[in-house]
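User
New here, help please:
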Amino acid sequence: MKQQTAWRSAIIGVGLAAWLPLSAQPPEEQDMTDIRISIDGTPGVVYSAHWKITQDDGVQEHKEENGTVPAEYHFEGTALEGKVTVLSDEGRLDVDVQKDGNRSSSSTSGGGSTLNIAVR
């Protein structure tokens, strides 16, 4: 029987690490799962986002140049990397990532502030 869980890190924001139990298999051998991202905060805040989703056939990219709060994204993959930047001069941005029943959240505020996200 294969080991069901191993600890890998999901990095949310600058220097903040949250540990998530995920499959012990390398990303290229894991089953694809639903990755859900919710972006909330001050209504109308404008942001840019760049997502890199690891899938069985390679890495897919999704860019959002002028997204507005609230927003939600769904991807299928084994891993996700992302960068979200606040474009509005003020307001709060909350990013919530869910994968395999695990959840990580981070927040930032102020124009130009950035969240870096990685889930494996």
